[in-house]
Amino acid sequence: MPADSIETIDEILTEQLVLLEEQISKLKFVENFVFTLGYDFDLNLLSSLQYSGVYLVEIKTIPSFTSIQDWMSDFLTKWEDDKYIANFVPNSRISRVRKHSEYKTWFPIYLGRAKNISDRIKMHVYKEMNKPTGALKLRERKNIHGYEFRISSIKVDVKNYDLIVPQVEKYFRNEINPILGRQ
């Protein structure tokens, strides 16, 4: 393929990415469900999430802390407990932690994308700590049982998933700044 063809395609893609970002900025997360972490997770909650797109995992903060920094410090101490660290789980991202200064009821901890959001959320809840697949592995984390989590999503059902959905994920990651992840 001649170089000018690649450059032409690059120009077209650049224009399309601008249009894509304009459309992405209009998207809104829809709250799917809230659950309390423990052994009684209702798998029926996942039945409505059989689609591709991006999802957001939030945790309900505990109002007894005096600042969001105190709450985050407590949560991250539990998250990064020696029993759980280095077990193919997302770690905290200090650059994203620093972006939060407001104490809100629901706090963004993880943002991801999936071709089947239902299957991916199930992994985040049920995957065993010793399995190499990266996931939150929430049920294995006994020190946060009893915490409330909220799952929200944006359905993005497109033929070019590998081109479009990562752009949606990137946009919202930069907007929301979830504190856990690989990125």
Describe the protein's architecture and organization:
The protein is of the alpha+beta class. The chain has one domain. It has 5 helices and 6 strands, in the order αββαβαβαβαβ. The strands form 2 sheets. The protein has a 4-stranded antiparallel beta sheet with strand order 1-5-2-4. Strands 3-6 form a two-stranded antiparallel sheet. The mean pLDDT is 92.
Annotation keywords:
183 residues; alpha+beta; two-stranded antiparallel sheet; 5 helices; 6 strands
Write the layout of secondary structure elements.
Elements: H1 3-24, E1 30-36, E2 53-60, H2 68-79, E3 91-92, H3 94-97, E4 106-114, H4 117-126, E5 148-155, H5 161-176, E6 180-181
Antiparallel strand pairs: 1-5, 2-4, 2-5, 3-6
Report how far the terminal alpha carbons are from each other.
33 Å
Kindly estimate the percentage of residues that lie in beta strands according to DSSP: 15-25%
Spatial ordering of strands, largest sheet: 1-5-2-4
Query: Oligomerization state of this entry?
Result: single chain
Please identify the structural class as seen in this structure.
Answer: alpha+beta
State the helix count.
5
Estimate nothing, just give the exact number of structural domains.
1
**How big is the Rg?**
18 Å
Q: How many β strands by DSSP?
A: 6
**Could you describe the largest sheet, including whether it forms a barrel?**
4 strands, antiparallel
**SSE topology string:** HEEHEHEHEHE
Low-confidence stretches: none
Helix content bin:
25-40%
- The mean pLDDT is 92
Shape: globular
Short recap of the structure:
By secondary structure, the protein is of the alpha+beta class.
